[in-house]
Amino acid sequence: MGQVGRRTWGMLGAALAMLVTTGCGGDPPPSDPVLQKIKDHGELVVLTRNAPTTYYEGSDGRLAGMEHDMAVSFAKSLGVKVRFKVMDSIGEILSALKNGQGDVAAAGLTRTIGRAGKFRFGPTYQQVHEQVVCRRGGPQPKSVADLVGLNLVVAAQSSYVERLRNLRTRYPKLSWKVSKDEDTEQLLEDVWKRQIDCTVADSEIVAINRRYYPELTIAFDLGSPQPLAWVLPKNAAGLQAAVDRWFAKFKKSGRLAALKSRYYGYVRIFDYVDTVTYARRIHKRLPRYEALFKRAAHKAGINWTLLAAQSYQESYWNPHARSPTGVRGMMMLTRSTASQLGVSNRLNPAQSIRAGARYLVQLRKRLPEDIHEPLRTWLALAAYNLGLGHVLDALKLETQLHRKDPASWRGISKVLPLLAKHRYYRHLAHGYARGNEAVRYVNRIRYYQDILRQKVQGAG
Prior knowledge:
This protein is mainly alpha-helical. The protein folds into 3 domains: 157 residues, D-Maltodextrin-Binding Protein, domain 2, CATH 3.40.190; 93 residues, D-Maltodextrin-Binding Protein, domain 2; 184 residues, Orthogonal Bundle (Lysozyme), CATH 1.10.530. The strands form 6 sheets. A 3-stranded parallel β-sheet has the order 4-1-5, with helices on both faces. The protein is globular. The N terminus is likely disordered.
């Protein structure tokens, strides 16, 4: 736990638990004005912020984000519609909630002692570390004491301010600046630009943004993991009970784990050298082939950034790439696949990219009809790498092992490596396969696509 004493935080945690459990569980009180208003209006108003960890518009124009998906599910459980109010800062969100401008604050908010005196909380849906983040080539503090004298800036009214205030009782010289105009993601960019020395951010926010700013470094954690939870009005005991009941079912069904896998399951594969090299090639190598990716993707009906990311995973955008197994070109096609797709020269970038896009779409169409997006595309990618037969074997095996759970990438990613174990593959139609390679393959493509989307803002 570094410089933070276990006893101190243990006492704070116990006190927090006592504060936030008051009013939880049991039947909702009949006089809850917040829950009654939601039912009367047929609408759940959710306060959030625009960020990749909470709520955003995807490249396909659809709204996404872990907080978004959870809120939609909860509203459905109440039989009402959901309306999102996007605000610029945590301070604005909490102020709006306190003033009755929303029913729930779902914005990656930490459950803290200070907030517990003003609001209620839903169940913890994620644990995060609050991390001090700096930049390569700049100050590299190893402890709280090393922060003294640095230009440390954090977002106003964030949980980080409360944490730093607690730490200052032990480190009186500790100081920091508070930004009212910039959120945590913007402050991370400021660190990357060398405009400030360091900031503090939740580990999931750091993991996502370090892909875009690879020179960011995690100096150290500011203590034990912290719980993220929805924030509710103080007078919303009935709404709190409804959230508790919904969440228990949501978690038990496996949907919470599936969401975590969808939004965070691939972000921890960060490799500094690989990410920096990729960013450089986006600017220097991709422009030669970008038009080819866009044309082929448009004709095939897929996203061009997905196709480009897959090609990078296959060949690093090298049209002359080849592997010891005989696959060649930008999309690393086998001789037989190239022949089936009418490719006369696998080293021709236009032919290879066009054929790769067509082949990916063919694989996607051949998957079972009850597989929906985005899982359908991820399984098609796995089939491109491993073969459709092996992916169908994995789906069959997942059904046998997890009969009650809906198909998910989280489940499939655990089953695919079993295709290399004799006790499993000897009963499967297509036998042995290195399924763990397909898992890495798909996760890296997702990783590369996210970075590419950020680098080419507005790419469709």
